[in-house]
Amino acid sequence: MPVFFGYRDSVSAREDFRRLLGTDRVLDDPLERHIYAKDASLMRGNPDLIVFPKTTEEVAAIVEIANRHSIPVVPRGAGTGLTAGASPVNGGVVVALTTMNDIELDIANQAAWVGPGVINLDLSRQTKQFGLHFAPDPSSQSACTIGGNLANNSGGPHCLAEGSTTSHVLGMEFVSAAGEILRVGGLAPDPTGLDLRGLLVGSEGTLGIATRILVRLLPLPEDVRTLLLDFPSVEAAARTVSDVIAAGMVPAALEIMDQRMVVAVENWLGGGLPVDAAAVLLAEVVGSTASVESEAAAISQIGTMNGCGTVVVASDETERNLLWKGRKSAFGAVAQLAPDYYLHDTVVPRTRLVEAMTGVYEIADRYRLTMLNVFHAGDGNLHPLIAFDSSDLEVAAKVRQAGDDIVALCLGMGGALSGEHGVGVEKRDLMPHSFSALDLDAQARVKDVFDPEHRLNPSKILPSGSRCFDFGGVRREVPEGAWV
Amino acid sequence: MGVSVLGDLETRIEGAPDGLHLAPRTIDDVSGILRLATEKGTAVRVWGGGTHQRYGMEPSPGIVMSMASLNQVETWEPDDLTLVAGGGAGVADIENLLSTRQQTALLPETPGEGSLGGVIATGRSSLKRARMLGTRERVLEVTAVTGDGRVVRSGGRVVKNVSGYDLHRAMVGAFGSLGVIVSVCLKLWPVPPDAATIRLTDIGSSSSSNRPLALLETKAGIDLFVWGTRSEVEAVVDGSGGEATPGLHWPADPVGEFRWSLRIPPASVGGAIELVQPWDFLAVHGVGELRLASNSVEPATEIRHWAESLGGALVLVDHPGAEPPIDPWGTPPMTAEYQRRLVAEFDPARIINPNRLPGGI
After folding, report:
1. B185, B117 contact by CB (below 8 A)
2. Least C-beta-crowded within 10 Å: which of A8, A139, B155, B266?
3. Residues A206-212: what's their mean pLDDT?
4. Res A481: pLDDT
């Protein structure tokens, strides 16, 4: 019999959840609790229960029960997050939103109301017949949910031109920490009063639980050109990206993979990638046929000036899909090299890409770690990936230190702590490196307004003591595997 | 800040209501003025270019604070497509500067004397927003001074950032209630080499462009705006069957004693145009925004009722009298109580533009 660790009246709480949802939608056996203890990061929490609501009203009732029993509430999508944002580090009830996956299309308004459990790629698949798509396309888009995208303000390769999730959420219905059902935004632009959408998107479930999301759909591009350029050095590829932006172009995507990553992908995919090149640049331009041809030619020319060997242009949709499959499955391909990987997510100004990449490799060399790079170069969004075996504690310690050094390097260049993965627990205690005490205090005030009891996804985003008083009330456990 | 220093900052702001007029020269000055105003419980009307001072309810009389001296462009990184400027920087000045390198911040096209901080505080957007999205999506970082004088920064000077709560996005359209905007980092965009404005005979002809820069309708007609490479622009012009003029020729905002902002779902713009026929209008197709002007308040109530039934709003932006003749905002949002509490955290004595927001916040 599992025991609610530390929360009073645990048996009674479990019974309340079962009365609400039935026994099938309330899980508490050790295996399930083990599975839901973590997301795709390396940190593990310890959930007491996992519940599966189907409606907004059920989510509101779950929050009310949790409030009554003083239990933390941790919303969760597909669990593909990389910062332990969905890891129940204070225990409590995990609210798995994957069964709330209705899609209600509004083609006339180029929008859709979707449940938080809708898988990102499923939405674009459904809207393709209407010539529309959902622009944010994280690498995990075949598994991650729109609710998770909203929580983390997820990006993806095509956010270079179209912006991250926050630019594509028009409104949402959400359940507050008090259990109210509220709505912000809508189809009409510029909601009156404070536009709370910007606060809620990217808040990692700490301000409310989104139960229905109104997303913007964009027309599919008229035409597209996808190019693969190979380079004799990562710096040459990065310089090409900087030069393309400086030349006044904002392509749909500009992605770099270094040689080690290309080899890993090619071993798995067998797509004919140039494994001898030090780096490849995957560039995509969209628009009218006339514009994509001229932009593709300009990118090729800039690449050649920077030492590009070969430019391959995808000749059809099949070839294009193969190139993108290689890019988006890169992280999975790393399993060939080591049982674990640690994926970083930092941002630098695009003018400092070359310098940043040089510094990142120096850090890997300093600690003698196996590093691979695949990243959104056009945004200056780096994803250094360190492949390692976490059972070797000495190596694991080096990985942690290298991670901190990478963050310090990027912040020192005027960069950001995270570009698209969020803060969660992983980067929570690094926030003071990015923000002043007053900046953090301002953010803590936002949390206090929406969730004064710190019931929703506690211990995420903000380090303890962000306000002049400590958060109090919630135990701040150090999760198993926590690095910061 | 002592009284003598305050005296140094005293000025005369043309067109501003009576009261103590101050022109802070630095962020510290802004902080000092606000801290003092909070201690005294004195309202502070923030003055950018003075173009939208009648937007929302009239704030209580008190200090008028001009942001004109905080008008410097701090950094411009053309190769990174970012710019940092003071809240008092003129929108026209910024766009003129950027045009020297064929870049734009996608700020409103006809800003007049409008300031960067004012555009963000009032949440006004470019007419290009159907294609390029609104002002909220251009703001990467904001530094603001809270009512009690705290200097607070949100966001960062990079184009992608998910570090914490995006207060800078909430500050767009907040009328300074979360802090007086003193510095802003904007995401820029390259201006393509060619552009055209095409007068269409009917709205259906707009389909010659998959994603036009703008599709606008006024009483004068329907105009399709397109930019891109020469061949791209020519292809749209040829496909439209309309009469094209090189360049982008933006219509002026409608003129009248009363100016309004109608916000409705994009697909309802056609219905809105029929409903607002007594008034002058500029409709932004694909967005659901109509800028309206009238010499009478009638039939605002009917239009507002219709807009709110669609989840939208009719907002009074400008009016001739001392006080607005009707509630400028209409029905307050259902999150009004959260908004009130949030504002209280950032402006505890509620001195910055008090009453501007819906629900008397």
Report:
1. no
2. A8
3. 98
4. 47
